Amino acid sequence: MSKAPQNAVRPFGWQDKLGYAMGDMGCNFSFQLVSTFMQLFYLQYIGIEAKHYATIILISKIFDAVNDIVIGNLVDTKKIGKKSKYMPWIILGAVTLVIFNVMLFAPVTSLPYAGKYAWCLISYCLWSIAYTMVNVPYGSLHSVITDDPQQRVTLSTFRSIGAALPAMIVMIALPPIVYSKQTNALGEEIDVLKGGILLPVAVVMSVFAFFVLWGTTKLVKERVHRDTAENVTGFKAIISSAKSYFTNRAMVGATIATVASVGLINSTMSLNNMVFQYFFNAADKTGIAMVGSYAPMIVVMAIIGKLTKKFGKKNVLVTAMFIGAVAGVISLFAPITADSKGMILYIVCLMGLNVGNAVFQISVWAIVADCIEVSSRKTGKSEEGSLYAIYSFFRKLAQGIGQAVVSWGLVAINFKEGENAVQDLGFGNKVKMLYIILLMVASVISVLAMKFIYNIGKKEEEEFANKAA
Predict the structure, then answer these.
(1) Cβ-count burial of 390 within 10 angstroms (0-12 exposed, 13-18 middle, 19+ buried)?
(2) Could you tell me the residue range of the domain that residue 119 belongs to?
């Protein structure tokens, strides 16, 4: 491993922080829209049945997971640009992401049911390829911008800041636009998703995502260069990377925690929309809960650097996740009612539940970079793209599992599909309990994985820092 000559690349600074934040901002203008509204769009507007949507997600996520590994290997072994290993891949992916993000929200209500099913499956698979071509090289950048652990925490924090803006827009600004009050067959006033408006929303957000990602390629610099002489290509490279990945105990622990966090927290946000839609009957106020959910993240962003430097990433994470698990138990028995007071209590519960996830989401990219660093020092190989792709494989698999769990959960509580469907009495409360249980289970799994499997402690982080100096 070596660094670029000091006179060739400017020192790590604000341009790298801003550029890296813009990268996840660009990714999340697409990802947040898809993860928050795709399920609602196809269930409530297009009319796909929940049990069929679950199979669509599982099939597409298995495809997506395999696709991650293939693209990760291509990023490591096929240099398509003259100067950078990663930037040309980001631009190529950003262009295709615009196209397939728009395709995903096409109002195909006139197609026969089989056509709707095929459209959803095919467009989601194509979107997944495009997103991977952006996200794998972008995520791999983290470990080559700097090899200093604290600078990596800074990058991870700025990545979370970049991701937060699209999330706030999707969860706060969009609900009043995409929902309207209508009267159902029983004469009740309910919130109904205006699915047709999601197409122009997707166009605007996709185009903006492209220009933000382009900005990343202009601001971020790669400083850490690893010897690639021992690297192999093709299928052997995939096997070699898989061996490096699964013999890395820290990576295994971080992966298990990620699957829990992404699968049962990040990928279940559509349930929160349903809580406000069916329990509080106030879909336009979903953004209030979003503010409450992000409050812990805002606080964590301000202090995460000092906390991890003093106590180490592992200790900070385990403590925060334990708080989230305890908050989940309390939330199950909290007297949350379907009025304004109950809404405030619900938001407070979400704040407690999201403490652990906030810390994890902010520091996870620094953790993954540290795990990749462990493998690179051990093997001497430049496998950043492939290792990140395998990690992304499990993130994508977790997204599919989470969305499938949501769909199966909705089947279990007798959700009625369709734009003007009338739900059973008590359905809103069942959705609320389902959402809280999934968040709590995620916190418990994450605590166990980071406490007993992940093995990069404060001592190891200090060793990384000394070697990077």
Answers:
(1) buried
(2) 12-221+234-468
